Amino acid sequence: MEAVCFLTELHVKGRNNYWKVRQAVETAKETLYSFDQLKTNKSEPRRPLRKMVFNVPTRRELTSGERAIQHGLAIASGIKAAKDLGNMPRTSATRPISPLRRASWRIPGAKTSSPRVIGEQQMRELGMNSYLAVGNGSQNESLMSVIEYKGNPAEDARPIVLVGKGLTFDSGGISIKPAEGMDEMKYDMCGAAAVYGVMRMVAELQLPLNVIGVLAGCENMPGGRAYRPATS
């Protein structure tokens, strides 16, 4: 199925054609998003949308419209990546921390990004004891993925630093949380997922900025080594 979008012809006060096309692209991608990576038998829609055309008022708007589509697709790709990370299961079989570790390996389309992973030993050397305490009760190693994007070669260019909370599952530790809503505790890592999505956007758009993304990943579980609140 092919479709033509005329939302771009609506008058929006203070907004130009570029903005309207980009918003339309992002909205379309948002509407069509579906997390089906774990389905064995994926059912295709009877009439899948294969092409969408965004209408612009004049030919003079074609260049800005094409740029808006490119930017909108890059932003939507980052949002999808963040959602996919958030929707992944947190079972022991899939190693709850693994998605954040894999996320740090490579940012597609980025020639100037270099990832690294800080493990527990290095965290101890850095004195990150409070951070390590959160993951003490888990059998899975805590880690911190650091992604650096260098789009500005100037020596005095300061980076923008984004830090995302990546608690892959927050049971509450020994202060166990109520059963109601416990299944949603896997979404405590969505801060880190959002940072990962932003890093993908920045890289795909090749922005002239220096950006550092920190994905702080650990798992808060009850256990014999779990953190104990201080008592007087």
By DSSP, the count of extended strands is: 6
According to CATH, the fold-level topology of the largest domain is Aminopeptidase
Mean pLDDT rating: 83
Structural category is: alpha/beta
Flag low-confidence runs: none
What shape does the CA trace take?
globular
Roughly what percent helix? 25-40%
Q: In the CATH hierarchy, what is the architecture of the largest domain at level 2?
A: 3-Layer(aba) Sandwich
Order of helices and strands: EHEHHEHHEEHE
Separation of the first and last Cα atoms = 68 Å
Rg is 21 Å
Order of the strands making up the biggest sheet: 3-4-6-5
Molecular structure report:
This is Cytosol aminopeptidase. Keywords: Aminopeptidase, Hydrolase, Manganese, Protease. The protein has 232 residues and is α/β, with parallel strands linked by helices. It has two domains: 2-37 and 45-87, no CATH class; 92-220, Aminopeptidase, CATH 3.40.630. The protein is built from six helices and six strands; from the N terminus they run E-H-E-H-H-E-H-H-E-E-H-E. It has helices at residues 17-32, 62-87, 98-103, 120-125, 129-134, 190-205; strands spanning 2-5, 51-54, 113-118, 143-150, 160-170, 210-220. A four-stranded mixed β-sheet has the order 3-4-6-5. Strand 5 (160-170), helix 6 (190-205) and strand 6 form a beta-alpha-beta unit. Helix 1 (17-32) runs parallel beside helix 2 (62-87). The chain is globular and about 65 Å long. The N and C termini lie far apart (68 Å).
